[in-house]
């Protein structure tokens, strides 16, 4: 039964890939910059490599950056725009990092190919490369995205997943982005790398009369909960972070799913994936077969990075990622 399930998902993935490639040809394309800026992908990869070599947290930051960008206004680098009431000013985005990597790659590319490569494409390719550098699959994604010109803080909260979301809330939000239940489970695997502030899972604990934390969410492994309470005691500084994955925090692997089955998912939105029969089956499959996870990651990441893309005459190619050209 297990083998048939895996075979079915692979068949669906390959069928989707064929259909999706046909679809994106009208807007995005593979090797979009082959003639106009052939060094673009190499510059981006070298930049991600350079930053990651001095700061191992960079891959996780870049992966979170692409999620937060694509889920609001589509994959158009709207999150990069600075100013009052832009997406960056929303509390949910204040802890997003990796901007300096994108800005650095953009500056180098502008020297070789001015006004050619969008910040949106740089974000997507940098996240793709970050996964590879962290030990995940190396994949191709189409390019040709253009940069958006609208960035509003008010658009953030209704469009990003809160760590306390229920399964229904996540399914509904993902569906509005054209992402399926399978995509939800696969893309949640991004939590295999990266860090989180203590406040992001604080609702799983409560304080006793002496101000000491106690485990409130009994779905969380008690030993893991003790570790979290030691790292994030009551009154901890807002800047304190913990690893999303307590086992292999810097490696993009399938340990996230193994952690879920051991009741060691950091967020409530992680733990709910094993409370649903349909998603638990997928979690078990990915926990048992890293290759299967990687194959599905390639398809789901491709879908994520084409959410709401702007192309053709829509949007612009920014000279600086922090501001529009106008």
Question: Could you please describe the fold and organization of this structure?
Answer:
The chain has twelve helices and four strands; from the N terminus they run αααααααβββαβαααα. With 326 residues, it is mostly helical. The chain has a domain at 37-193 and 243-303: Orthogonal Bundle (Peroxidase, domain 1), CATH 1.10.520. The protein has a two-stranded antiparallel ribbon with strand order 1-4. It is globular.
Break the fold down into its secondary structure elements and pairings.
Layout: H1 2-24, H2 40-54, H3 58-70, H4 99-112, H5 119-133, H6 167-176, H7 181-188, E1 195-197, E2 205-207, E3 213-215, H8 222-231, E4 241-243, H9 255-261, H10 268-271, H11 277-288, H12 290-304
Antiparallel strand pairs: 1-4, 2-3
Helix pairs in contact: 1-12, 2-4, 2-5, 3-5, 4-5, 7-11, 7-12, 9-11, 11-12
Number of strands: 4
The CATH level-2 architecture of the domain at 37-193 and 243-303 is identified as Orthogonal Bundle
How much helix is in the residues? 40-55%
The first-level CATH class name of the domain at 37-193 and 243-303: Mainly Alpha
Strand order of the largest sheet: 1-4
Q: What is the overall number of helices?
A: 12
Largest sheet: 2 strands, antiparallel
Mean pLDDT: 92
Catalytic activity: 2 a phenolic donor + H2O2 = 2 a phenolic radical donor + 2 H2O
Keywords: Calcium, Disulfide bond, Heme, Hydrogen peroxide, Iron, Membrane, Metal-binding, Oxidoreductase, Peroxidase, Secreted, Transmembrane, Transmembrane helix
GO molecular function: heme binding; lactoperoxidase activity; metal ion binding
EC number: 1.11.1.7
């Amino acid at each position: 039964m297990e083998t048939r399930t895996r075979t079915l998902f692979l068949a669906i993935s390959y069928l989707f890939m064929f259909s999706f490639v046909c679809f994106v040809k009208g807007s995005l394309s593979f090797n979009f910059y082959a003639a106009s800026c052939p060094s673009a992908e190499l510059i981006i990869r070298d930049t991600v490599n350079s930053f990651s070599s001095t700061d191992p947290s960079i891959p996780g930051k870049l992966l979170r950056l692409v999620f937060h960008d694509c889920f609001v206004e589509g994959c158009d680098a709207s999150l990069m725009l600075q100013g009052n009431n832009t997406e960056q000013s929303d509390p949910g985005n204040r802890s997003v990092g990796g901007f300096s990597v994108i800005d650095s790659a953009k500056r180098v590319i502008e020297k070789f190919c001015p006004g050619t490569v969008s910040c949106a494409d740089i974000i997507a390719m940098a996240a793709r490369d970050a996964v590879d550098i962290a030990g995940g699959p190396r994949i191709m994604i189409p390019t040709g995205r253009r940069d958006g010109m609208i960035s509003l803080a008010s658009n953030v909260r209704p469009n990003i997943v809160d760590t306390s979301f229920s399964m229904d809330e996540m399914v509904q939000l993902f569906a509005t982005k054209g992402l399926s239940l399978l995509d939800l489970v696969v893309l949640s695997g991004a939590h295999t790398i990266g860090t989180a502030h203590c406040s992001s899972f604080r609702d799983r604990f409560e304080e006793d009369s002496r101000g000491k934390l106690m485990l409130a969410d009994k779905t969380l492994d008690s030993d893991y909960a003790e570790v979290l309470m030691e790292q994030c005691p009551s009154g901890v500084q807002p800047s304190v972070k913990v690893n999303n994955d307590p086992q292999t925090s810097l490696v993009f692997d399938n340990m996230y799913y193994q952690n879920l089955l051991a009741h060691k998912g950091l967020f409530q939105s992680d733990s709910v994936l094993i409370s649903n029969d349909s998603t638990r089956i997928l979690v078990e499959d990915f926990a048992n077969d890293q290759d299967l996870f990687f194959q599905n990651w390639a398809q789901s990441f491709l879908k994520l990075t084409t959410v709401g893309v702007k192309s053709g005459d829509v949007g612009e190619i920014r000279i600086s990622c922090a501001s529009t050209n106008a």
